[in-house]
Structure formats: C-alpha cells, structure tokens
Amino acid sequence: MNNRQLTALMIRLALGFIYLSAGLSRLAPEYLGNIIGPVYLPEILKSDFIIFIWYSSAIYEVIVGSLILSQKYSPHGLLLVIPLSIALLILTIFLGFGATPIFNCFFTIFLIFALIQEKIPYKKILQGDSTALNRSKTPQLYPAKQLSLLSLTLIILTIGLIFWQGYHLNILASLAILGITINLFQFRNYYKTDYFFIFLFFAIAMIALNGNIIKHTLNNFIYWQFGLIGFAMLLFLLRIGISRLIGTAGQKSRSKFYT
Q1: d(CA 24, CA 190)
Q2: Phi and psi (nearest 5°) for 10?
Q3: 186: helix, coil or strand?
Q4: DSSP structure class, residue 36
Q5: HSE-up of residue 226 (Cα within 13 Å, Cβ side)
C-alpha cells in the first residue's frame, strides 16, 4: 500500500471512528465512550428542541461514521458527513466550545483530503451516473460485503437497543469494531508493518468505546488513551517518511543504472 492509500485509509478510520464514537457516547454516555465531544449538553441547556436535535444528530453521526468505517460504503459516508462537518464547525465556533473548533477544522481538512481521493466517482455522479460510488476504488480494495453488512447491522442493533441502557451496548459496538477490523485485513497489499496500524486502530477504538468501564480499573486512563493515539501517529509519520526515503533512493539508483 503506497503512502497516499495508507494516508487515505488512516483518515477514513479516524473520521469514521470519531463520528461513530461521538454519536454512540451521546446516546449512552454512562456506557459508551469516545475520543472527543461533550455528552451531557442537553442537561445543561434544558431545551426540548435542543434535546431533539442533539439525539437526532447523534444517530446521524453513528450512521455516517459506520458507513465510513465499513470501507465498502465509505464514499457514501463521506458525502453524508459533509453537512454534519460544516454544521459542527459553525456551531462550536458560535457557542465558544474552547478548543473544539480547532479540532473540527482539522477534521474538515481530513474530510477534504478523503473526498479528493474519491473525486472521480463524485464527478461521475454530477454527470448523472448514479452507480459511480459502487465502482469507487475503496470498495474494490475491501470487497467483503458480508463483513461490512454485519458490522453495520450490529451498529443499527446498538441504536435500536439504546433505550435499554446496559453493557450489552458495549458488546454490540465492540463486535462491530471487530468486524470492521477483520474486513480491513482482507486487503492483501499492505506492507508488513501496515498490519500493525490496523491492530492499533482496533486497540484505540476498543479502549475509547469501553473507556467508561476501563477508567474504573486503570488510573490516569485518559493519558493512556491519548498516549496510544500519539504513539500511533508518530509511527505513522515514521512509516511515511521511511517509505519516501526508500522510494527516492530506489529512483536514484534506477536513474544511475539506466544512464
């Protein structure tokens, strides 16, 4: 997998899980955790309209996040997340959510990068080809439709059972992440080191989703969580840098050989 493909994959995983976990944690804040986002805002504002918008947008976040993570339907999810990303950026700026608008700016930049990778099928949609997204490169890289549908079904089941709060929500969401991870391993053209990034995604996602349980037994849980994210980012940058150096060295050696 080249640098561009790996970067696009990591961005899809980051965006998908951030939206998925943010939505789930707002629906079940006592059980499901996230990486970023407030979970008790309606209790502060005490407005029926705000509560309706809050939970409706949470369900929307879960849906678009799971679509992006599925890979099979990530082009669809990326399109659907555009209005949500813009709305959250504007809302957090006007409500003065501290540093949250800065994070949302980064998420918007990531989203733009991910959308650019799918520019050809999106262009064909504008030209009237309604099936273009199904022929996108991303679904072709991860063709295991059954795994994607299984993970999406588990997410929908989690939403359906959200009124019965309990640890069964953690189990369902964790199984969905497991299915997503297994689907990621179906791609066979990774470098050997890239499999470690898939494992790190699984570890970070499981820790974040089940953070409300883990924090009762692990002191300074939040530092462990963000420490692992920082470690993954550092390894990713190192992988990209080494790959570029090797590629440049290879091009120079081939150039000398043919001259």
Answers
A1: 30
A2: -65, -35
A3: coil
A4: S
A5: 5
pLDDT tens digits, 207-243:
999 988 888 777 777 777 888 888 989 998 998 888 8
Structure tokens given for 54: 């809050």
Report how far residue 60's alpha carbon sits from residue 24's, in angstroms, rounded to the nearest whole number.
Answer: 10
| Distance separating alpha carbons of residues 33 and 31, to the nearest angstrom | 7
User: Cα–Cα distance between 30 and 40 in angstroms, integer?
Assistant: 10
Structure tokens at 171: 């189990």
CB-facing half-sphere around the CA of 227: CA atoms within 13 A: 5
The pTM of the full predicted model, rounded to 2 decimals, is 0.87
What are the angstrom distances between the C-alpha of 48 and each of 44, 55, 160?
A: 12, 11, 21
Read off the pLDDT band of 98 (50, 70, 90): low
Cα–Cα dist 182/186, whole Å: 7
C-alpha to C-alpha distance for 64 and 34, rounded to whole angstroms:
16
Q: Distance between terminal CA atoms of the chain?
A: 29
Number of Cβ within a 10 Å radius of residue 56: 10
Q: Tally Cβ neighbours within 10 Å of residue 128.
A: 7
- Residue 236 burial (CB count, 10 A): 16
- Cβ-Cβ contacts under 8 Å for 2 (sequence gap 6 or more): 243
Mean pLDDT of all residues in the chain?
Answer: 84
Per-residue burial over 89-123, b if 16 or more Cβ lie within 10 Å, else e, is beebeeeebeebbebbeebbebbeebeebbeebbe
